[in-house]
Amino acid sequence: MTLETLVENPSIPEESTSALSTPYDPTDFDANVMTTYGRFPIALERGEGCRVWDTSGRDYLDFVAGIATCTLGHAHPALIETVTQQIKTLHHVSNLYYIPQQGELAKWIVQHSCADRVFFCNSGAEANEGAIKLARKYAHTVLEIDKPVILTAKASFHGRTLATITATGQPKYQKHFNPLVPGFAYIPYNDIQAVEEAVTELDEGDQRVAAIMLEPLQGEGGVRPGELDYFLRVRKICDETGILLILDEVQVGMGRTGKYWGYENLGIEPDIFTSAKGLAGGIPIGAMMCKTFCNVFEPGDHASTFGGNPFACAAALSVAQTLEREHILHNVQERGEQLRTRLRAIAHRYPNLVSEVRGWGLINGMELNADIDLTAIDVVKAAMDQGLLLVPAGPKVVRFVPPLIVSAEEVEEAVQVVERAIATLSA
Fold first, then answer.
1. Which CATH superfamily hosts domain 14-75+327-426?
2. Which pLDDT value is given to residue 105?
3. Rounded distance between C-alpha atoms, residue 253 and residue 124, angstroms
4. Which of 54, 285, 405, 410 could be bridged to 280 by S-S, CB 3.0 to 4.6 A?
5. pLDDT tens, 315-351?
């Protein structure tokens, strides 16, 4: 099943629906929509702030936010105003012409990051595809590598296209989709010795490492933050060898960690990085950013029909300006600290169930003990029964990714629900 990586199994067990009922009849839906998702038995129809309502009128506190996507929550006035005005004016034109909104958004990103240039697309997978293509062209044309290899981390997640599932260091996503795209090798996350050994071993053969592609914090891999020393040393290896450092910021970028970009937590700058999810607060958009020295794309090398259209870029620019105007990064830092403190108190009270709480800003994970039968999906269902939406990050980690506008009262409400759910499951 996937809600990105909601659970391992292709569907939710029948008994999980017993405590949830809505008048919505999914018969036609299930008869016509491909079963690539195992869906919870609720149908959501509207939202406001950090709350959503299903078709029966029941409200839920939303700590999923479209999986770290609804940056400003639901129905934020600034986003409503922007998209309403833009759809009345011009929503799409070809990239054959200048698009002012795209230029303004690119300018904002460049001014608020280490990037010099931006390419726009529609999703995180597309942004990562663009980064992979850019790294390969750089390898061939600048580094003169005939068989370039990109190192990625085990337990990573980079998307659902053939290239990005190959980049993803989780075999479960690759099963039955072979032959996979050549030119990738995998290393353990936060293990610098593995990086050094892989670079040396590959350079001794007929291949060479052209790029290292990492998440500053592994989201789908269990909400695992990168270690400062590890990333500093990876950056040093790249500087000494000419290898490009690519950071996948699809889930952690755009303020999610309490800083605009995840790499700011690590004291380094990437050569290439990607963004999507929260960039436009729920309107589809992706972006691939790079520094000038590796900007080797020329006209015709890469393109996207919908990428950077006026509607999506206006929405993203509105999100960016709202983050600044309302000082939302400060809220992310404070609410993240509050959430981790309260979740760690629960872990202290239930050490037989909860082994660790970790994260940055408002992307946090609560890991369950490996030697118990309880799974993340059990906690998610128990919380949902009590009106709180959560999402797993693998079989044993419950993920907390609320809108960045979440209040202290809403964090407290969520934690109280989690504690009741844990107490029930413990009993």
1. Aspartate Aminotransferase, domain 1 (3.90.1150.10)
2. 98
3. 11
4. 285
5. 999 999 999 999 999 999 999 999 999 999 999 999 9
How many other β-carbons are positioned within 10 Å of the β-carbon of residue 218? 26
* Bridge partners, 75 (sequence order): none
227 bridge partner residues? none
* CA atoms 257, 258, 260, 266: torsion sign: negative
Query: Got the DSSP string for 141-199?
Result: HTS--SSEEEEEEBT----SSHHHHHHSB-HHHHTT-PSPPSSEEEE-TT-HHHHHHHH
Q: Say whether pLDDT at 143 is over 80.
A: yes
- CA distances from residue 94 to 80, 99, 280, 307, 313 in whole angstroms, order as listed: 24, 9, 19, 9, 13
Taken in order 240, 246, 251, 254, is the CA torsion positive or negative? positive
Catalogue the active-site residues. Answer: 157, 248, 277
Q: Mark 291-307 as b/e (b = at least 16 C-beta within 10 Å).
A: beebbbbeeeebebebb
Q: What is the C-alpha to C-alpha distance for residues 99 and 90, in angstroms, rounded to an integer? A: 10
pLDDT in tens, 104-128: 999 999 999 999 999 999 999 999 9
Where in the chain is CATH 3.90.1150.10?
A: 14-75+327-426
> In which residue ranges of the chain is CATH 3.40.640.10 found?
77-325
Cα–Cα separations (whole angstroms), residue 121 to 34, 287, 411: 24, 6, 33
pTM for the structure as a whole: 0.93
Q: What is the pLDDT of residues 386-408, one digit of tens each?
A: 999 999 999 999 999 999 999 99
User: For residue 200, what are its two tokens?
Assistant: 């040396």
Q: Is the peptide bond before 179 cis (omega within 30 degrees of 0)?
A: yes
**Residue 45 identity (one-letter amino acid):** E
Instruction: Provide the mean pLDDT of the chain.
Output: 94
Share of the chain above pLDDT 70, in %: 94
Does CATH number 3.40.710.10 belong to domain 77-325? Answer: no
State the average pLDDT over residues 257-267: 98
- pLDDT at position 425: 94
Helix (H, G, I), strand (E, B) or coil at 223: coil
